[in-house]
Amino acid sequence: MHVGLNLTFLTPGDSGGMETYARELLAALAKRGDVRLTAFVNRSAAAAGGPWAELADQVLVDVDVTNRIQWVRGEQQLLPGLARRAKVDVIHSLASTAPLWGRIPRVTTIHDLIYLKAPEAHFGVRALGMRVLVPAAARRSHRVIVDAASTRDDLVEHVGIAPREVDVVPLAADSASPVTGTPEGRLRDDLGLGERPVLLSVSAKRPHKNLPRLLRALAALPSGRRPVLVIPGYPTPHEGELWELSRELGIESDLRMPGWMSDADLEGLYALAVAFVFPSLYEGFGLPVLEAMRRGVPVACSDRSSLPEVAGDAALTFDPESMGAIAAALERLLDDEALRARLREAGVLQAGRFTWEQTAALTVESYRRGLETA
């Protein structure tokens, strides 16, 4: 089977979880003997190189993806003709939008309906585009892939897609071996952590991540036993609001938001953290939870959207709209060593149930269903 991977969205180093998905899925598909891969990439991805150049045939979609109009033009006008000339059997679009026409069967991964469930996450032209293009891609594709059953249910309820047209294909933690972490002492000095316990929350500073309630929960803990909360992740305009809230709550000295961190520093943070907390209101999958579990870090997370599917019984879950529930979960993790030990062991086992080989196998099954129904 000749599979065309629609990577017109991809700006290496700036596409977040969707880049991880593209890299890992492509590598896992390339290991199989039943698919041939052609990657359709924009100028930035072609110039940067990556597995799409090393493990697949590469075809340039000659657009500047930082320009939203060019990106849409590349996907909607140029890609169908390029795919036809490359003689692919199926086009798999990996980033929730897809070409809406053409004779070649189309399979589309829709990671979430964040444009609908958490509209404040997008704005301007991007927000308008997602509201139009994602539902259209879902309706015009021959198969739809989602990361979690909760997103399938959202598509059924809000877009009107029949459940039988949707395949649930879970993701997995990063397949690369973790780098050697920065030594704890150096990290504590660099971040001014002293000898205090550390709570880690790897998260973009965006409203649906629910970080204001996490800060209020932190403030509710007794000051003498309060840990330092470290939130690495790329900065956004929302970060200023979080700092202002921390000052109002009197916990500015209990908060660190270091922005981008090297892989070694992040690995060191996982190693020294007493627990990982993830209070998001909406996630298409929730890879940060799986990444923490893989490393044996006890996890407390929201009980919303896809997170219960990812965490199973290996995390302490809470109502993310209740500051009291979040605070209670934090206190349990901080005070109960036996609970932390149980969650460490259960988390490693839970993370091990998700593999990119399984993701690739289920994806190929979806391709076959798409070909059968085209």
Overview of this structure, please?
- With 374 residues, the protein is α/β, with parallel strands linked by helices.
- Helix content is 47%, strand content 15%.
- It has 16 helices and 13 strands.
- It has helices at residues 16-30, 43-48, 51-54, 68-86, 114-117, 124-140, 149-159, 184-191, 211-220, 238-249, 263-272, 287-294, 307-311, 323-335, 337-352, 356-373; strands at residues 2-7, 36-41, 57-60, 90-93, 106-109, 143-146, 166-168, 198-200, 228-232, 255-259, 275-278, 299-302, 316-318.
- Strands 3-2-1-4-5-6-7 form a 7-stranded parallel sheet, sandwiched between helices. The chain has a 6-stranded parallel sheet with strand order 10-9-8-11-12-13, sandwiched between helices.
- Strand 11 (275-278), helix 12 (287-294) and strand 12 form a beta-alpha-beta unit.
- Helix 1 packs across helix 16.
- The radius of gyration is 21 Å and the shape is elongated.
Helix content: 40-55%
What form results from the Cα inertia axes?
Answer: elongated
Unreliable sequence segments: none
Largest sheet entry: 7 strands, parallel
How far is it from the N-terminal to the C-terminal residue, by CA? 15 Å
Derived from helix and strand composition plus strand pairing, the structural class reads: alpha/beta
Radius of gyration: 21 Å
The DSSP helix count reads 16
Give the rounded overall mean pLDDT.
Answer: 93
Order of helices and strands: EHEHHEHEEHHEHEHEHEHEHEHEHEHHH
- Give the strand tally: 13
Percent of residues in beta strands: 5-15%
Task: Walk across the major sheet and give the strand order.
Answer: 3-2-1-4-5-6-7
